[in-house]
Amino acid sequence: MKVSKYVFMLMLFALTFSCGKSMSKQSADKEGFTAIEKELKAKFGNNAHYTDLNISYDKSVGNMIGLTVTDAPETLKMGSYVFSEHTSWKQNSEVTIEIPKGTKAKDYMFQLDDKINLTKLGELVEKSKEQLTTDKDLKNPSFKMGFIKYPKNGDISKAEYIIKLEPQNGGTSFSFYYKLNGDLIKMDY
Q: Based on the structure, what is the number of domains in the chain?
C-alpha cells in the first residue's frame, strides 16, 4: 500500500509539471501568446491593470516578460515585474504613479480584454513574419520583441502593438507598428 501511494504521488507530481509549456517556452504566435495571457491572468487576476507589458525572446533563455501592473488602480501603486525561465516572477520595484487632478488612474492603464490582448499580438507576429517572408524574401524571421504601447495620456485610440523581428542569424531588425484593430501603421528597419 505504501508503494502504491508513493507511485501515485510521483505520477501526480510528474503530471503537474509536464502538462503545458512554461511561459518561457511558448511560441511567438497566437496560440503561444494566448497561453501567456492566461498565465498572466492566473498570476495577477482578470481585473489587473497594466501600464507596460512586453515579451522579448532570447535563444538561450526563451521568452522574458516585463510588466507594470496593479489590481487596485485607485491606490496609485503598481508593481514592476519580470519573468524568465531562470527567475520565474520577480518584482523589481514598486511604482507610484502621478495623475492629473480630477482624473482616475485606471484611465491611464489598460486591461487584457477584448480591446487589448496578447492573442491579437500573437496574430500580428504571425502576420509580420509572413510579410517579411513575402516582401523581403527573408526566410524564417525570428521574433525578438512584442509589446503594447499605451499612450501616457490614456488615449486608447493611440495605443499600438509593436513587433520587432530579425533574420534568424541576426542582422537588421524590422519593426512593425499596428493599430489595436490590426491595421498596419508602418514597418521600418
A: 1
Other beta carbons less than 10 A from residue 158's beta carbon: 13
* Residue 68 covered by a domain: yes
The residue whose grid cell reads 480584454 is 113
pLDDT for 107 equals: 94
Taking the complete model, does pTM exceed 0.90, yes or no?
no
pLDDT at position 21: 57
In a domain, 152, yes or no: yes
Model confidence band, residue 20 (pLDDT cutoffs 50, 70, 90): very low
Range of the domain at 46: 23-188
pLDDT of residue 54 exceeding 80, the answer is yes
Indicate whether 109 belongs to any domain: yes
Q: Is residue 30 part of a domain?
A: yes
